[in-house]
Amino acid sequence: MRSPASSAGRAVTGTSPCATARRSSAASCSRARTGASRRPPRTACKSSRSDGPRCGKRRGSSASPFWSCSRRKPLPGYAQRIAVITSPDAAALTDIVAVVERRWPVAELLVVPTRVQGDGAEAEICAAFRAIGRIAGLDVVIVGRGGGSKEDLWTFNSERVARAVAAAPVPVISAVGHETDVTLCDLVADYRAATPSAAAAAATPDRAEVLDHLAQVGARLGRAVAGRVDLAGQRVERSLDRLAGTMTLRVERHRHRLAALSGRLDALSPLKILERGYALARDAEDRLLTRVAQFPPGLAFRLRVSDGEVRARVAGP
Hints:
By secondary structure, the protein is α/β, with parallel strands linked by helices. The protein is built from seven helices and ten strands. It has helices at about 90-105, 120-130, 160-165, 185-190, 195-205, 205-265, 270-275; strands at about 5, 80-85, 110-115, 140-145, 170-175, 190, 280-285, 290, 300-305, 310-315.
């Protein structure tokens, strides 16, 4: 069976299968909870109950890797495909679907139907765990059922089921029975939830919190971009000021140089010489007359002075 589901965010109060009633135990593990906005990977080593065994080594047994907190896989931050191993008629499945659809609608919920008690339940649960290993892109598995007597829950105390849970390639969340019930499946799973609803909340982030986090990130990004744009604008303004100052200085230098060259050119101008009292004589053919021999008696010529020309004629001897 396969049903789409959804839910996003993880502000869940679920507990891990590793817990201890001894406050003095140095091996007890704790799980730091953070807001769904950051969604760091979570390992499951905290329990609100006082009757759970310690992490690492169970009383009366050898140090099995099943009980070690170090082998537990962190839960995904934003699960896209979630498998649920439970009875298709169980109320637990209804609770899981409702929570996932409310919290993280983009997630896909894959239901692997099995019996959860009675003859054949143990084999079906083990087969279901083998089947999830062939599901591509699977992020997390929820295994569980509602409450019942110890005999009803005994399937989840099977060593075969415990080994199947431990061998799962993806993180496993166990939600078997009520909060006061403890099974081997709870202890071996990567994370223990008190109820199926808590298991669904542990597997998914809260959509509202994710959207709020994205809004905050967008606002910070906008402020950062605006700050960079403002800084770039200030740099451009300073560059333009420096460019304008440089251009003004160069224009002023060229102006002074041009004034100096203009003064030198004026000093060499013939008009300046004429202003000092000199005159230029030209005949009717506009030839410059510079010698006395060029002025025969009766010759008509023009005399150029500083402010114009004067017509003249050479008088007789």
